[in-house]
Amino acid sequence: MGKLNIYSIALGLAGLLFIVVIGMIISGNLDQAGPFILGLFALLALGFNGYAKMKGLVFTTMIFAGVTAALYYPAYFTNFGDFKYTALIIPLIQVIMFGMGTTMSIKDFAQVFQAPKGVFIGVSAQLIVMPIVGYLLAQFSNFPPEIAAGIVLIGCSPSGVASNVMAFLANANVALSITITSLATLLAPFLTPLMMKVFAGEFIEIDVLAMMWSIVKMIILPIGAGLLFNRIFGNRVSWLARAMPLISMLAIGLIITIITAAGRDSLLEIGGILMVLVLVHNVFGYLLGYWYARLFKMSEEDARTIAIEVGMQNAGLASGIANSLGKIATMGLAPAVFGPLMNITGSVLASYWHGRPTRENPGPTVVGP
Q: So where does this one cross the membrane (predicted)?
């Protein structure tokens, strides 16, 4: 009971800080609200941690705290002496991909042969829906070319491991989700540069081969190393399987914070509009992904899976691509905004579906007295 009181008190204090922040915004003192906003997110994270239904929001809340810190105190997140923190982005992504590889095996791809229809529909939905919606939003945005290209980039990226977690929470087909994520990720070095050439070529110059090699270094090599590590050591390093999700989350949070600090000035100028466009992109991914699957007579469980796989993209990889092109402060902004937002919308959607079991997965049977 004591612990619950601590969590409740934290949420209560967060409510008070929220009122303070709103008051500062109304009075035109937003530039001095940094410490209060940071305190708000820290208290929300503590409070959410005490309630099972809200635990999924702790990570996202902490990311927003990191973004706030980067916006108000960018000097702490841009460089240390002559060392620029953007140099950490690609190694951090490689760590995440290595962790993904350690959890994979050849068995994960058995679904391709056992249920090829679902895998094909899921991957094709990613390749059709998100790049086209991203292109249309970039055209509509009137943003500078490099920022607009970032919207297209997030649409041309594969889904990330967060989608697998959301599929589990949404009573969806987790095996299908893992297979689609894995296959789309392994195809990314070849398909993402080609799609960027088609959909973003009018915004920035795309060197397809250079982008392919960049993505191979970020995805194929570390995933391959992870697969080999898993093959050699297997269950003897079970602690790594438990540690990698936390390490990956911390890496993603750090990547988003660094990108926010690097592109702070541009983000302050167009942040509100960019947030709306990115949210539209994300929500349309869920909506069109779901109905694309239903169009092909997929089950409710599989349609939920494909909706989540389409709507939740690998923002970390997109950030790494932007960084490899030397455009992290512009092209990297859309992925930096997309990451936190998709975790919020994904959690909300998963919670909604979790309370509505499918006929294929009816949930626990209640036995009467």
A: 7-26, 32-49, 56-73, 85-106, 118-141, 147-167, 174-196, 208-229, 241-264, 270-293
Which parts of the chain fold into alpha helices (H)?
Answer: 2-26, 34-48, 58-72, 89-102, 110-114, 116-141, 145-155, 162-169, 174-200, 208-215, 221-233, 238-262, 264-295, 300-311, 315-324, 333-354
CA dist 307 and 257 (Å) reads: 28
Nearest CA-CA partner of 156 in 203, 225, 99: 203
Q: How high does pLDDT run on average in the chain?
A: 85
**Dihedral pair phi/psi, residue 84, rounded to 5°:** -95, 130
Domain boundaries, the chain: 1-81, 82-354
- CA–CA gap between residue 224 and residue 216 (Å, rounded): 10
Measure the CA–CA gap between 361 and 349, rounded to whole angstroms: 17
Give 157's contacts (C-beta < 8 A, 6+ positions apart).
188, 192, 313, 314, 315, 317, 318, 321, 335
Of 338, 261, 345, 362, the closest CA to residue 308 belongs to: 345
Q: Which DSSP state fits 218?
A: I
Q: How many Å apart are CA 184 and CA 75, to the nearest integer?
A: 36
368 Cβ neighbours under 8 A, 6+ residues apart: none
The pLDDT score that the predictor gives to residue 366 is 36
> For residues 174, 177, 178 and 179, what is the CA-based torsion angle, rounded to 10 degrees?
120
Give the helix/strand (H/E) hosting 83.
strand 83-84
Task: Give the Cα separation of 328 and 305 in Å (integer).
Answer: 31
The CATH number, out of the four listed (1.10.150.240, 1.20.1530.20, 3.40.50.880, 2.60.40.1180), of the domain defined by the range 82-354: 1.20.1530.20
Residues of the chain with confidence (pLDDT) below 70: 1-4, 105-112, 234-235, 237, 241, 357-369
